[in-house]
Write a structure and sequence with these properties.
Layout lengths: L7 H7 L1 H12 E2 L4 E2 L14 E5 L1 H18 L3 E5 H4 L11 E6 L5 H12 L3 E6 L5 H5 L2 E4 L12 H21 L4 H12 L1 H9 L2 H11 L4 E6 L3 H16 L2 E6 L16 E5 L6 H13 L3 E7 H7 L5 E5 L7 H19 L18
Parallel strand pairs: 3-4, 3-5, 5-6, 6-7, 8-9, 8-10, 10-11, 11-12
Antiparallel strand pairs: 1-2
Helix pairs in contact: 2-7, 2-9, 3-7, 3-11, 7-8, 9-14, 10-14, 11-14
Bound molecules: fructose -6-phosphate.
Fructose -6-phosphate binds next to helix 3 and helix 11.
Protein name: Glutamine--fructose-6-phosphate aminotransferase [isomerizing]
Catalytic activity: D-fructose 6-phosphate + L-glutamine = D-glucosamine 6-phosphate + L-glutamate
EC number: 2.6.1.16
Length: 364
Amino acid sequence: DKGNHRHFMAKEIYEQPEVVARTLAHYIDMARGRVCPVDMPVDFARLDRISIAACGTAYLAGMVGKYWFERFARLPVEIDVASEFRYREAPLEKGGLTLVISQSGETADTLASLRYAKQCGQNVLAVVNVPTSTIARESTAVAPTLAGIEVGVASTKAFLCQLTVLLCLAVAAGRARGTLSAEDERGIVDALIGVPGLLAEALKGERQIEVLAREIAKATDVLYLGRGTSYPLAMEGALKLKEISYIHAEGYAAGELKHGPIALIDERMPVIVIAPYDAVFEKTASNMQEVAARGGRIVLLTDERGAAEAGLETLATVKLPEVHPAVAPLIYTVPVQLLAYHTAVFMGKDVDQPRNLAKSVTVE
Ligand code: F6R
């Protein structure tokens, strides 16, 4: 049932404040303002590193998770797409931890990665949406994402719930390892509690994005740029756009621009820059100047402060609420999803059933 939405994808984008609130209720002790103890197969304090394996959008959630685990828990993270992880025979220590992330819990390569990790004697924690899935059954422990059934082939609400769970796990790891002060934990938890409200606010920007989508629909190539946790988000934006609109899109680390992709910049290729006003904003802003100087048309996703500091002409500036940097990836996901959605709808594409794609990829 799509409710009063035209597509499942729209319905699922709009469900995000609700499903993230549900996921938070599971992982956060609201009264104490702390992350709940997670049912972990191995103590975070005993680990030297963790490995993550996943595919597609779930892999990109894992990449955001890597930044969080390394920052808040000082825990090195190795991440691979599952199709590489399973065959490259990475040396994995007995008793260590592998995290697999999957909406369906049936993705063949992710399942094979899980089995490989277990063979190596690792504990496997599955961040998974379907609790009855094979991946949930075979892993050592499950961290459920609680997004509810996702119908649209392009993953939206499952991605946001994966981010929510990963941030809670990173905070729990930070506490266990003594790398995150009680005050910093409180700051992140308070920010997390505010996320459903901020998502609802971000959704109010839909009309502006719908208009912008008509411009994007004319492009044959689109570049997405971001730094820090906005980098995996840039790749997620590009993935969403290509899979449902069939426009060629690439996500790049903003700092990589001058190492190649800048050669592509001209007035026909929109450049979507994801840049909340954070510790790396100034660096991204200078990459933006380089794009502008070459006639590139910029769509800037930022906040009030970032818009003021950027000081350049853009095709559009989409302003989001000012947020704690830890939760920015969750909030900035909304415009990225809406842009892909409206571009594809405007082009008359079947957004819920894009060509050549299946919701659950059970072959390698
Ligand atoms: C993209 C998308 C895919 C999936 C990938 C993994 O929107 O939906 O990239 O994320 O096929 O699927 P799961 O999470 O079911 O393992």
